[in-house]
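Hi F.,

I've been meaning to write this up properly since the lab meeting, where we talked about keeping a consistent format for the predictions we share between groups. The idea is simple: the sequence comes first, exactly as it goes in, then the structure tokens exactly as they come out, then a line or two of notes. No screenshots and no reformatting. I'm using this chain as the first example so we have something concrete to point to.
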Amino acid sequence: MEKIKFIDDLEYKKIMEILPICCVDILIEKENKILLLKRNNEPLKGYFWTPGGRIYKNESSTDAVLRIAKQETGLEVEIIKKTGSFDFIHNIGKYPDLKNGIHTISIVFLVKPRDNNQEISIDKTSEEYKWITKIDNDLHLILKQVLKDSGIFEK
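Output, unedited:
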């Protein structure tokens, strides 16, 4: 089956008004550190968050992980495991005039770079990146829980 990749803005906005969007969030682990990206877009513009995004129609969640990791970070990754899922409901999204805000359901994956010598190359959705070695107090509440649920810093 063909993947449905592009949805024009008007149609996507209508979908976001009435349905949750299925996404993946990616915990990229290297040497006991997790990669975070500073978001350029709403929701949570200016916050550090994991790479992630929507799953296309007819695309598996694991294929979405590989695609989004490459697109947002330039890294080819290997999936280690699913670590959980979460709902994200927020009044501000990609479209500022959404009446009902946004609702995403995200599946979280722990991955590692296929090659530790790969260079990170962030795309336009991010302003900068950083590696963290612990759950910092200034992280968003949901991200703190995602990191805690992953168990990555309990080693």
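Notes:
The chain has a mean pLDDT of 94.
Helices lie at 9-18, 61-73, 141-150.

If this format works for you, I'll send the rest the same way.

G.
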